Amino acid sequence: MPNAMKTALLLGLMSGLLLVVGEALGGAQGFTTMFLVVVVMNFASYWFSDKIVLRMYGAQEVGPSHRLYGIVERLARRGGLPMPRVYVIPQPSPNAFATGRNPEHAAVAATEGILQNLNDEELEGVIGHELSHVKHRDILISSVAATLAAAIMMLARFAMFFGGSRDDREGSNPIALVATIILAPIAAILIQAAISRSREFDADAGGATLAGNPLGLVSALRKLEAASRQIPMDANPATAHMFIIKPFSGAWLMSLFSTHPSTDARIQALLSRQ
């Protein structure tokens, strides 16, 4: 199934889950109120995401004389994209991300570690990946998924403290209510992570196209996977989905909740394009 279709189906599934859980746990009025609160919070986060995240990591803007700027400029022109702002993050762990609410307000950031560890061909693959996120407006898709997931989790917390709606308390099975409170947030997180993984595969493919071949990105992913284990990044878990490779590794069980596919799976998908 194409990743775009998979993303649409997953978003639809999460929307349906929100409606069912909202009605069951929060009642119509509680559901509407909480959903509006979450939408406002995530809209503000989406609108100002570039400023928030760049400031969080102490990113410093660089100009045309910088190596990274030249690579971003070349690939943006090749992809028909407006020139994004370019930033360097003062961290030794090699990683990169793109942010911004649309291609006209985008920013690309890379750590000092990635600039030291990758050659130009590898760095082009990484930047191509990030520009592909910008081109396909993945920041918007991630924001929608985060809004839906947050609304579901807030409703579950509401039900945990207040016992759900009055109708729910009077007419439903308490065991079913407890199961919904526990399982609904887990399902939301799993769907959100699946959407993110799907977008990563598409960004890899787009990055390989922009760079001209997949081999630079393949080599970069191998280096980044090894380096991320040796030098974990000091990253906020809430922003982990933004990076080209997850900043820290976890237990096998946590791979179910991972926002990134396995590096081996990404490399196999890229090599199959040759």
Shape: globular
Number of helices: 10
User: Beta-sheet strand percentage?
Assistant: 5-15%
- Whole-number radius of gyration? 20 Å
**By helix and strand content, what is the structural category?**
mainly alpha
- Amino-to-carboxy terminus distance: 20 Å
The helix-strand sequence is HHEHEEEHHHHHHH
Number of strands: 4
Give, in spatial order, the strands making up the sheet with the most strands: 1-2-4-3
Largest sheet: 4 strands, mixed
Q: Any low-confidence stretches, pLDDT <50, length ≥5?
A: none
Helical residues, percent:
55-70%
Q: How confident overall, as mean pLDDT?
A: 79
Description:
With 274 residues, the chain is mainly alpha-helical. The protein has helices spanning 3-47, 49-56, 67-78, 112-117, 120-135, 138-162, 166-171, 174-211, 215-230, 263-271; strands spanning 60-61, 85-89, 96-99, 107-111. Strands 1-2-4-3 form a four-stranded mixed β-sheet, sandwiched between helices. The radius of gyration is 20 Å and the shape is globular. The model has no long low-confidence stretch (mean pLDDT 79).
